[in-house]
């Protein structure tokens, strides 16, 4: 007789599904507030895209003011203390970049969860969601290592990125960009070592056209900026990419090459892979995207060796364990933040986080990027975390209810971390009061977030904690 799958049943106050930027701070916040909390992660590491070495965006606004505090800043402070980040750096293109160590991100994430009392379930995939006849989520079922586990909880938080909990619960949703359903492309991040940036920068001195951002908003984005700014992102090599494509040696749908500084000066994160025309919420398309991504990684290594002075002997250090996914499902919330409502009093009065990044839309069908500067941060209203038609659930990270243009700014990791802290705090308040997330007092929520260091509209503070002002 064949042995059956094992079955477990556990109960918590708060269950957070997804351990990336949209889930990790939520679990920490809920547990710190006294709720028994479990964090379910489908991979073997917490941190999401930050665990790939991708620099974190969104900490500083365009004027250099700090826009994120609370757990998001605490996470960076703890990385700084162990050489896992050099802090925040201003950037003419991205407003700011916060380089991180991919492996120390994983360690600090676990440390903070353990200290807060969060129980972690690694390598567990969501299988199902149980919604009762009052449209309230009562349990989710996850699977890991021949075992199905039913998790009962009073409040659930969807930090999956793709909104898998909300999708299975029946929350109304759309796909991709409003009007076209085209999704921003995914990327397979990887880090490299054994390069000489000084030689590469000398090459750029002699070939200034290979500094790729020439728009007026990018004034000051030049080779001197790269030299003096420890945490920077290089975008360029437009001509060499075009020449390699003409020679049949560059098949990636990208018109430029991108590297990003990490916490180590011996490692760079490469953000040039591009998987277009895939729906990463579909497992078959996701798998094909990964397959293509691996071929792109090797193609990029060959490109660097042949076209980038100082990179002739470059080597792969690490390939991310999962695709970096920019966009899939968008969910309908009690409130939908749109470009028309970014700076209204109603939005600011109910804001539980700030978004300080620019509108950054990577073409899902072509090779370019459409970037529009956001001059001042905007608030994320609490209603954008509350899903329509379903109770007992909070949306977090990039699952929140916004239009696809606002999403292009709010989707970055730093903003997702601030949203997640608010979601975790709201969940704990609902548990404390015996109510639902939709009954949480947003005034009290905002006050509590501010007391724990969160930065909300009207409370901007000068950049600190590692920020470098040019």
UniProtKB/TrEMBL annotation:
Signal peptide: none annotated. Transmembrane segments: none annotated. InterPro entries: FAD/NAD-bd_sf, HdrA-like. It comes from the Bacteria. The keyword DNA-binding does not apply. The keyword RNA-binding does not apply. Keywords: 4Fe-4S, Iron, Iron-sulfur, Metal-binding, Oxidoreductase. This is FAD-dependent oxidoreductase. It comes from Brachybacterium sacelli. The lineage of its organism: Bacteria, Bacillati, Actinomycetota, Actinomycetes, Micrococcales.
